[in-house]
Amino acid sequence: MPAATPLPRGPSVLTLYSAADLLTAPGCPVCRYAAEASDRYLHWFALEGHSQPATITRLCASLGMCAAHTRRLMSQPGAPVRLTAVYRYVVTAAGDQLAGRDARQAACPGCEHDEAAAGRALDTLTEDLSDPPVLDRLRELGGLCLPHLAAASAAGRPRLVAPLVQTMQATIAARGTCRDWLAGTDPDAGNRAALRAAIPPGRPPGPVACWPCLTGALAERDALARLPSQAGGGPDPALALCPGHLADAAAAAGGRGSRPLLAWQAQCMTLRMHAGSARWMRLRRRGGLPGECAVCHASQTAARRALTGSSGEPHDPAAAAALCVRHHLALRAADPRGARQLARRAIGQANQLAAELADAFDRAARARSQGAPAPGTTAWQRAAAFLDGSVFGGWSRPLPAGSVRDWPVRP
After folding, report:
1. What are the beta bridge partners of residue 395?
2. What are phi and psi of 187, to 5 degrees?
């Protein structure tokens, strides 16, 4: 399926005409294509996309990007100046949503781009798999990763599932080969692991951006820690993980430990596919529907309880004092009246933060015009956490190195 022409005022689309364009190296061909497309998109954003009115409007509608894409944007050279400029508009839009003038929130544009790229690759590959040489070549390279195999099943191509599952099982069982790619390619997995390692089990003194986000992160960490013992109980379709948490579990298992984990997850996933429920393995990286991934369910349930409790109102003082914008909007659906009361403080925060961002942007512009380095600011980091507390695992900014040394650590 040709898709080689540049999109107007946007990132170029990678050339993709047939499965031959994908089957060029060992490993999952869909992951490889989607990862390159994602890198190009973020590179385009850094070079020119961040300054285009259409991009700013789109980011205002989605209140920025998801936590994973936000962390990738923050790792780029020049991120402080670039994101200071972008967030002054996005934070203002967040204040408008909190005031009730626009409660509709669009999806993360980075996720939409990556899902579209993976979808193109998967469609192109599966359309050509009826050709025996193409299937033989895919087998030679190792087949698909677990998430994209399940996505192929969910896309309604059941006749392809059997040979793909056989290929996956052979790849897992093969000796002397690296199997880490079978969990999928997730460039944010390392960031999430570092955040989980830094978050203490209790609530220590410190700037909490969002208590439900922090509570959900702790529940997620506990659920991931339980997986090795659950794997010993045999395959269970209810324990098939979403792509993001499969990557988390594989990274935690590491090297030799990833083989039994992948074999167990392959069995869980196959049972679930046979049951006709593979929606949990959609191309989205994380956060499927509640209950579709056991780790997602544990995290979302804990965050929801921290936010609303059983009465539909914040039952923890910390939850009332520290909510990110996304959880303010979630509370609105459960308790509109209570949410309006809490939103007043957040609207004030949005206005103050937007003013700080605008001032930081002006000071950086003056410094550049004088050939001086831009003055340092943390407003762009606090803006990211204000919009989505999960960016830093519930904290308002990255935890300094060594800052958790004296905090209690859960055994």
Report:
1. 208
2. -65, -10
